[in-house]
Amino acid sequence: MSRYPELQQELEHRRKKGLQRMLRTTEYVAECQGTWIVSNGQKLLNLSSNNYLGLSHDPRLLNTWQLTANTFGAGGTSSRLVVGNSSCYHHTEQIISRWKEREATLLFANGYMANLGCISALLDRHSAIYSDRLNHASIVDGTILSRASHYRYRHNDYEHLQYLLQKHKEKHRRNLIVTDTVFSMDGDKANIEELIKIKHDYGAFLMVDEAHASGVYGETGAGLCHQLGVHQEVDILMGTCSKALGLYGAYVCADQVLIDYLVHTCRPLIYSTSLPPALVTAIGHSVAIVQQEEWRRQELHRKSNQFRTQLQQAGLLVPSGDSPIVPLLLGDNQTAIEYSNRLEQAGILAVAIRPPTVPEDSARIRFSLMATHSDEDIAWAAHQTIQTAMELGVIT
Ligand SMILES: Cc1ncc(COP(=O)(O)O)c(C=O)c1O
């Protein structure tokens, strides 16, 4: 009997609803650069990482990391505002500012902290945030922390957004519209051009989260806003180093004055130890690779489209799109778990995503592709996915 029967009961309740979570132990297959993974002693094709460009195991990045650690040490040692602001930071932030074509950049510990810190620094209880319903949890949590009024508009529904702005904006000192540019669980996109128009019409700030677009869209991989040529018009451009860059960390790009303001007010930046310098330097190196190696983006898109099309042609409920995120919509939690388990038995790691990560009754398998998957692996994975759908009666 547990010492905490109430907690035990709640866990049991979650299990019955198909909402149990577990920490899976994984190891990488050395020569496969992250495309294959070992879990429970089984070799599995990895269709669940955000390592879109296959850079997490790139020998150039590992080398940079090691060399920098030899000189600068293994840890950040203090907050950046004390003695943790190594010269590596300045260098990498300049690289990112040039890449994003923005005045200034601030690195953060991770994407969660960047959103949490930025939103809670810019807004207070006299402010309001207008946030897409499917935005990432870190945006929601930053909003709660800020104590700003929280208005959630229906997903990509800008009439609803304008209705909310019209109704509430005068009550607040500062109004911020925030959206993911590519939504993490659906792979669909916000209409950034439309949002820029609305931002101007209502005198609001616009913040975009390019976590799943950075490295993936635009000629140099700078993101969706760059692909559209509107990156200068967005107030706050946020992105992560944990996905296409293959590393860890995040950044916010904006006008210098906004970055200065964050340095003075952003609590996760001020009251937390800086990132290890070796990682910061590796981030700069990864940006350079992402800019130069366009073939990675081309391969990623080609393979994602191939996989998506194969599933759609078999009659599976897979929304159209062009991102490397390919969701297979199943609805109920138990079907999603069973589907994922069967794929695992067949040799594919593709995890089931359930509420609250996605809305109720929209459990799914979230496939995510990598530039470095082989064509054979992708074709085989599509075949296994379709077979599984037939076994489970998802398609006939
Ligand atoms: C849209 C979005 N924003 C932010 C984050 C958080 O980034 P990180 O994993 O670097 O904390 C994620 C990661 O899952 C994400 O999908």
UniProtKB/TrEMBL annotation:
InterPro entries in the record: Aminotransferase_I/II_large, AON_synthase_class-II, AONS_Archaea/Proteobacteria, PyrdxlP-dep_Trfase, PyrdxlP-dep_Trfase_major, PyrdxlP-dep_Trfase_small
E.C. code: 2.3.1.47
Pfam families (alphabetical): Aminotran_1_2
Cofactor annotation: pyridoxal 5'-phosphate
Reactions catalysed according to its record: 6-carboxyhexanoyl-[ACP] + L-alanine + H(+) = (8S)-8-amino-7-oxononanoate + holo-[ACP] + CO2
Transferase recorded as keyword: yes
Entry-annotated residues carrying N6-(pyridoxal phosphate)lysine: 243
SUPFAM superfamilies for this protein: PLP-dependent transferases
GO biological process: biotin biosynthetic process
Pathway: Cofactor biosynthesis; biotin biosynthesis
Bilayer-spanning residue ranges: none
Chain ranges of the Aminotransferase class I/classII large domain: 43-382
MF annotations from Gene Ontology: 8-amino-7-oxononanoate synthase activity; pyridoxal phosphate binding
Protein keywords: Acyltransferase, Biotin biosynthesis, Pyridoxal phosphate, Transferase
Record family assignment: Belongs to the class-II pyridoxal-phosphate-dependent aminotransferase family. BioF subfamily.
Function: Catalyzes the decarboxylative condensation of pimeloyl-[acyl-carrier protein] and L-alanine to produce 8-amino-7-oxononanoate (AON), [acyl-carrier protein], and carbon dioxide.
Quaternary context: Homodimer.
Name the record gives this protein: 8-amino-7-oxononanoate synthase
Gene symbol of the encoding locus: bioF
